[in-house]
Amino acid sequence: MDTGVSDPTCDACDVVTVPTRQGLEAVDILRRAAREGVGSVIYDDGCDTLGFLVPPGTAAAWDVPGSTCLETDGRGLSVDVEAEPPVEDSDWLLPPGEADLATDPAVLRAALGEAARLIRAADSCR
């Protein structure tokens, strides 16, 4: 699936939400690794979460502990590369236009797992 920004809107992107710490680790992993790039990411300061835009249909099979995947099916989530984030009181960590529009779910799943392992290891050293 082409997740580039050649199509400037995503009227049905699903959103994977994770705690900020794990999400930031996953963003670093995705950006450093020789993998496909990370897609657009929303930072919600009020909820202390990151939201990764993923292709529509991801929510149906999403099963990563510690995260949720909201199926938007176009209901209220319309991403325009020129617009503000589609979630009230949030901001773009990686806006469309500077990143792929959506992150591949399999790549995100692996990065979130690696991030969780890194966090557990770091926390066990305290």
Explain the overall architecture:
It is a single chain. Helix content is 26%, strand content 21%. It is α+β, with helices and mostly antiparallel strands. It has one domain. Strands 5-2-4-3-7 form a 5-stranded antiparallel sheet. Strands 1-6 form a two-stranded antiparallel ribbon. Helix 1 packs across helix 2. The radius of gyration is 14 Å and the shape is globular.
Short description:
Helices cover 26% and strands 21% of the residues. It is of the alpha+beta class.
Elements, N to C (H/E):
EEHEEEEEH
Give the oligomeric state: single chain
| Total count of domains | 1
Q: Kindly report how far apart the N and C termini lie.
A: 42 Å
Continuous helix count = 2
Percentage beta strand: 15-25%
- Low-pLDDT segments, ≥5 res: 1-8
Percentage of residues assigned to helices: 25-40%
